Amino acid sequence: MNVLRLSGIVLGCCVLVALTTSAVLAADEKAVDKDKIVGTWKLIKEGGRPAKEKAVLQFAKDGKVKITSTVEIAKVEAGGKKTKTKTKVESKTETMEGTYKVEGDKLTVVMVVKFAGKERKETMTLTIKTLTDKKLTVVHDGKEDEFEKTK
Which positions ≥6 away from 151 have C-beta within 8 Å? Predict the structure, then answer.
């Protein structure tokens, strides 16, 4: 009877070690090489489709991030009886700065947003799906954005 009890204890310990090892390996699979994020990234796809706006992310080694976004705005000028309607395209560029942190497969970005003369911090947590030397894919709010490394 003692041999059976001892066998059960040994088997239980083996199962516990196997489960713990599996959990550690699973955590390592989710971890990304956070040093690969350092550099300049250009938005290629937004929500799985070609990006409509031009966005560039610059991640520095010291944990700072700079986001530059350019949106093209079409303005239509109505013509009169003798003139045709004209469409004029203008570009609007905005730059925001903040900090970032990579923990496991999570990218947390804290931006300082200035609006109407006031500043406030916006925090966004994204899931890193892919991070290689040339490609960064993040998921937020169920949407996937893809970036290409330029520098």
Answer: 39, 40
